[in-house]
Amino acid sequence: MRCPHPWGRSSEGRDGQLVRSKTRQGALLLGVAALSLGAVAPAVAQEPLRVHDIQGDTRLSAVDGQQVAEVPGVVTAIRAFGSARGFWFQDPEPDADPATSEGLYVFTGSATPNVQPGDAVLVSATVDEYYPDAAPDKSVHQSTTELVRATWTVASSGNPLPEAEVLASDTVPEALAPDAGGASIESLPLDPARYALAFYESREGMRVRVDDARVVGPSTKYNELYLTSKPAQNPSARGGTVYLGYSKANTGRLKVESLIPFSQRPFPKANVNDSLTGETSGPIEYDEFGGYTVQATALGELTSGGLTPETTRAQGNRELAVATYNVENLSPQDDPAKFARLAEGIATSLASPDIVSLEEIQDDNGSTDNGVVAAGETLTQFTAAIAAAGGPHYEWRQIDPVDKADGGEPGGNIRVAFLFNPARVSFVDRPGGDAATPVDVTGKRRPELSVSPGRIDPSSAAWTDSRKPLAGQFTFRGKTVFVVANHFASKGGDQPMSGRYQPPTRSSETQRLTQAAEVREFVGKIQRIDRFANIVVLGDLNDFQFSPTLSRLTQRWSLIDLVNVLPPSERYSYVYEGNSQTLDHVLVSGLLTSVDYDIVHINAEFADQASDHDPQVVRVGLLH
């Protein structure tokens, strides 16, 4: 087993086709060089083998590292671009075992293989388990069983391709994988009738087909989309598929990329609820970026589902409207069109909320890493764009972070910030808040912030390389409101849902749990003075409503996570790998005469996005 280089994400393939390039060529050349220097050659399989013998009934081939000779099959597809070129071939004479795949990939590096679909071939090669990200003992991903250093002969041409297996709504199991206690499932016998990952693995390299499939993850800049073979599986109100629990993986989701040259068939620009009408088919392979993927040799025709961006209603005169919006690394380096679209989202789609928590505001020169941390130009340009879009003349408050101390894009110094409409609300300014000074709660009968705006315990290890929450004190119609803007630590470093370890370890959760405890304790300080204080905690919490992070944030003190008041089909603000899910939250506490909460879908379901997050807003009537 070899350790390949990781995939690149932006190499140009034939016809400008964007591909993630598996740069395995170096490993291939090293292997050839080693043999020429007298290294021990791979063992040779003693018996003639067919594809199902090589694949076996687990994820790892029993003949990994061995040479095999004249393995028969019919070429089904060719990858003729990028540095991971090669072809798939499939045995038209399968065995009777549903756990053994009849397909294999033959890796040829940067050389385009001289075969065509329909060629009957006899392949001699070395069997290899390819891990896309690291050495086998360190990889979190599943491997791909493939053939390397291959030679082949074409016995005949023009043969019919093996029939593609149709993935109907009941074909793929509902359960994702066996519970191995967090250990690797690689050595376990495949049970394709019970587990989805086992089903897909038992079809590795084989042709599969989905007909008239609904899109549940929009097209990306990497020319990929997600569709579902299970249209009734946790459908969202707008055509996606909602992620509602760690044991509810939505196993009908399937990523689609294209082997068709884009000069012949541009990759479709699909939104959620669109469909690929007709046949979408091709061999299936494991991809570290999103799991099992159909490498399509046939793409259905894109049919619009009619999805359009939403708008919400304006708040009433006695309603306070508070919103959150992750604006995805906004800085003056961005095109003015991005500012204009984000501004329209606030002015029109969100109907000009009174207070807005912004996440991912970058410093004034964006990703340029030169020590600049101020974001005045960013916020001035953004508030001007909102006014130009018909919104109010917002004022803003924020605190500059210590350079490179808050994570995010290197040099960008992202932070959270408040916008507020001074015609509707007042900000209570108390000086002294800076990157290092913690905000505290003072007062005996009425809570007050010691500094406003102020950061919650910025020296705590909970906020290492992460954004510090920003607390602000506002007044609305004579009533005090405390707002805490958040952007918790990302999920980077978690094991993938479709990886080799099951269930996957969520290592990043540890930090978010400590962050949730810090924010919960701060809220508790306010509520110990006034149990009915008006508090809004909101932002990109980078975790789900069913997660331990949200449980910790809402326990003990009366904070209500408003996403849970929505029907399950509406609980999402983000789409990742075809799962409509919730990372952004609004939590409220206080004596409220009314609560009207809305996630406003303007980005996440669409191929053309101003941000990868949808904003959300709550309109509340205050009694206290």
Summarize the structure.
By secondary structure, this protein is of the alpha+beta class. It has helices at residues 25-36, 51-55, 196-201, 336-349, 376-388, 509-529, 548-554; strands spanning 11-12, 18-19, 67-79, 85-90, 103-109, 120-130, 144-156, 165-166, 207-217, 225-228, 253-258, 275-287, 291-296, 301-303, 319-330, 355-361, 395-397, 415-420, 426-427, 441-442, 448-449, 454-455, 470-476, 479-487, 534-540, 560-561, 574-576, 579-581, 584-589, 592-599, 616-622.
Describe the overall structure:
This protein is α+β, with helices and mostly antiparallel strands and 624 residues long. The protein folds into 3 domains: 146 residues, Nucleic acid-binding proteins (OB fold (Dihydrolipoamide Acetyltransferase, E2P), Beta Barrel), CATH 2.40.50; 139 residues, Beta Barrel (OB fold (Dihydrolipoamide Acetyltransferase, E2P)), CATH 2.40.50; 304 residues, Deoxyribonuclease I, Chain A (4-Layer Sandwich), CATH 3.60.10.10. It is 12% helix and 30% strand. The strands form 7 sheets. Strands 19, 22, 23, 24, 25, 26 and 29 form a 7-stranded mixed β-sheet that branches. It is elongated. The termini are far apart. The N terminus is likely disordered.
Keywords:
7 helices, 12% helix, OB fold (Dihydrolipoamide Acetyltransferase, E2P), seven-stranded mixed beta sheet, Deoxyribonuclease I, Chain A, 624 residues, six-stranded mixed beta sheet, alpha+beta, disordered N terminus
